[in-house]
Amino acid sequence: MSTESTQPDMPTPVPLTVAVLGLGAMGLPMATRLATALTVHGFDIAEDRLALAVEHGVIRFDSARAAAGGADAVLLAVRNGEQLTEVLFGADGIVEVLARGSVVILTSTVGTEAIPATVERLSAHGIGLVDAPLSGGPVRAGLGDLLIVVGAEPDALATARPVLELLASTLTVVGDRPGDGQALKTVNQLLCGVHIAAAAEALALADALGLDPQKTLDALEVGAAGSFMLSNRGPRILQAYTPDGAEVLSRLDIFVKDMGIVGKAARAAGLPSPLAAAAEQLYLLGQAQGLGAADDSAVIKVVAPTPRAR
Q1: How open is the CA angle 160-165-80, to the nearest 5 degrees?
Q2: Do the domain assignments include residue 281?
Q3: Does residue 50 sit in helix, strand or coil?
Q4: 193 and 171, same domain (yes or no)
Q5: Cβ distance 208 to 304 under 8 Å?
């Protein structure tokens, strides 16, 4: 495993065409970042997202197939393995228009299960899969400051590298097999999901004990109990009870999906994962309570539906 750190500076243009399919919260900033140095084809079903992309130098197309045609690389951000299969091989799938030697860059967390069959079907068309799940959020995507873990064969990685280096400040090559990236991201999501749930539970306890939530967070951050997730999600957890809640930077139902992937992977490996299972139940309860589209910091409302009266 190798880790490379790059600075998110303005890059030197290179002759590469990449298609970004889906210009949502992550797709649009990634497309605009890539357009600073590459030829970028963009597609989205939402006209307003296409218009924003065009303002930043992205060439718009009216279908995924049209955008993928002539691209050296296609960047995909899908919800799950079923969507991945549909985009590539469905009735309007893009595989038929991709050139031999091109690559599909999968940036989503979908788990390892769907990867082997996808690799086999793409290989039949001479197309490589670069397994490159990422994290960092929309702002960091636009700055080229994402954390990306990669599993890919060397030739496919070489083709995708200009794209990945534009998007990542830290690029970790886990191995030369697609699926290696998904495996590491699954481990990452176990920790993230548990840490967010633990931070919410801790701050709920502080409130129940009559402590000032902000002072508690400030104290915890600088001590042994501090963590990235506590510092990152803590302020948003404290905003969860406000009328509008915290700004949605990462939806709660994403962790319903991701902790489900963690649980499935652990069971397949014959490994008990009691902490991950407990955290998954909190996210599932949150989704059942209508919090799926809220920021994941709203998981505190599962533990404590209302703050302590003062």
Answers
A1: 60
A2: yes
A3: helix
A4: no
A5: yes
Q: Kindly report the backbone phi and psi dihedral angles of residue 196, in degrees, each rounded to the nearest multiple of 5, phi listed first.
A: -65, -45
* Residue 308, domain member (yes or no): no
Q: Which residues pair with 173 in a beta bridge?
A: 2, 150
- Read off the pTM: 0.90
Q: Which of 144, 175, 206 is the last residue in one of the domains?
A: 175
Distance CA 213, CA 137 (A): 26
Which residue of the set 185, 215, 257, 301 is catalytic? 185
Decide if 309 is inside a domain. no
End-to-end CA distance of the chain: 52
Among 175, 196, 226, the domain-final residue is: 175
Does 301 participate in catalysis according to the annotation?
A: no
CA pair distance 289, 49, nearest whole angstrom:
30
Asked if residue 208 and residue 93 are part of one domain, the reply reads: no
pLDDT digits (tens, 9 = 90+) for 28-53: 999 999 999 999 999 999 999 999 99
Spatial contact of 40 and 95, defined as CB atoms under 8 Å apart = no
Q: Which domain holds residue 56?
A: 2-175
Query: How far is residue 82's CA from residue 94's CA, in Å, rounded to a whole number?
Result: 15
Tally of structural domains, the chain: 2
Cα angle 258, 262, 263 (rounded to 5 degrees) comes to 115
Q: Closest Cα to residue 128, out of 103, 151, 106, 162?
A: 103
Q: Which two tokens stand for residue 133?
A: 């799940």
Kindly report, residue by residue over 90-129, the tens digit of the pLDDT: 999 999 999 999 999 999 999 999 999 999 999 999 999 9
Query: Which residue's entry shows tokens 């599962």?
Result: 302
CA distances from 48 to 26, 60, 223 (A): 15, 12, 45
